[in-house]
């Protein structure tokens, strides 16, 4: 496989190195899909205590959603994240994915696995209390990133967020959609509808290869983005899902399972490793030298 890296990919961190005031490490963890062992191993690699699970003081984790389904222990993943949200709430940011959304409103798609009552109650408690949100903003010395489950499409950015170019404002507006405006928030794309790609698909459902990345190819990005949910590259089939012009500006990190597309104004970084019933290995979180700013 070959790509032409248009610029270096997002920075791996050395704690405190080169970032804005208050810099630490921000680790963006991709879709987990019920794989507890994968999560615990990655947290230990990031410096968590292997016995207690406590995160190091310099680390903040943003998890992009899709904690559940597919793998063998969705309930175990929820229990671990719930523990971290209770014991280190300032160091774990949990975003909502389309698989969590199944339990927050009327289910939008059929899925053969269902969480038990305890898991469903945990997700609803997180959502109603604000412990699970839609977006996070991360600032590094070089750029700002909006982190969501599936990415912010051009149409959604324009129609719902008013075309804001402030990443903190974008995050605030997205998080404000929880509650009364969830129909907008969970606006489906063609992965759900089976119809033609929707360039205004919402940040929980947008498909990277057909709705998110192509939509920004001819428009300047107001800020960089990190997303999960899907990828412009199929890590199992080892093939791109986008046209040649986007392949040329996409850099793959095969060890981390990250795909970074560099466009005018910023980068779109996909961190979904594509775990199924079996995990995809190797993979790792995206580490940034920076801080949460929203």
Automatic annotation (TrEMBL):
One of the record's GO cellular component terms: cytoplasm
Entry-linked Pfam families: Metallophos
InterPro entries from the UniProt entry: Ap4A_hydrolase (IPR050126), Calcineurin-like_PHP (IPR004843), Metallo-depent_PP-like (IPR029052)
GO molecular function, one term: phosphatase activity
Calcineurin-like phosphoesterase domain sequence ranges: 25-161
GO biological process terms on file: RNA decapping
Disordered: region residues: 1-23
Chain segments annotated as coiled-coil in the UniProt record: none
Family annotation (PANTHER family): METALLOPHOSPHOESTERASE (PTHR42850), ZINC-DEPENDENT ENDOPOLYPHOSPHATASE (PTHR42850:SF4)
Protein's UniProt name: Calcineurin-like phosphoesterase
UniProt organism field: Friedmanniella luteola
């Amino acid at each position: 496989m070959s790509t032409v890296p248009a610029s270096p990919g997002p920075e791996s961190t050395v704690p405190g190195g080169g970032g804005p005031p208050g810099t630490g490490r921000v680790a963006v963890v991709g879709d987990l899909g019920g794989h507890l062992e994968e999560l615990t191993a990655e947290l230990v690699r990031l410096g968590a205590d292997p016995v207690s699970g406590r995160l190091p003081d310099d680390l903040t984790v943003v998890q992009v959603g899709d904690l559940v389904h597919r793998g063998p222990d969705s309930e175990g993943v929820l229990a671990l994240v719930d523990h971290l949200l209770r014991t280190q709430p300032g160091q774990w940011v949990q975003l909502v994915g389309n698989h969590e959304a199944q339990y927050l409103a009327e289910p939008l798609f059929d899925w053969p696995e269902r969480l038990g009552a305890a898991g469903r109650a945990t997700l609803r408690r997180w959502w109603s209390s604000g412990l699970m949100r839609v977006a996070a903003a991360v600032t590094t010395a070089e750029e700002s990133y909006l982190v969501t489950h599936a990415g912010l499409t051009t149409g959604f950015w324009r129609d719902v967020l008013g075309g804001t170019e402030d990443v903190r404002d974008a995050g605030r507006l997205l998080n404000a959609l929880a509650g009364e405006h969830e129909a907008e928030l969970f606006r489906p794309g063609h992965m759900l509808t089976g119809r033609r790609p929707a360039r205004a698909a919402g940040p929980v459902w947008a498909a990277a290869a057909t709705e998110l990345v192509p939509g920004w190819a001819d428009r300047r990005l107001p800020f960089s983005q990190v997303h999960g949910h899907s990828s412009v590259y199929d890590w199992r089939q080892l093939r791109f899902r986008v046209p040649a012009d986007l392949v040329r500006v996409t850099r793959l990190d095969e060890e981390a399972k990250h795909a970074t597309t560099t466009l005018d104004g910023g980068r779109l970084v996909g961190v979904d490793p594509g775990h199924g019933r079996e995990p995809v290995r190797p993979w790792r979180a995206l580490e940034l030298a920076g801080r949460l700013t929203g």
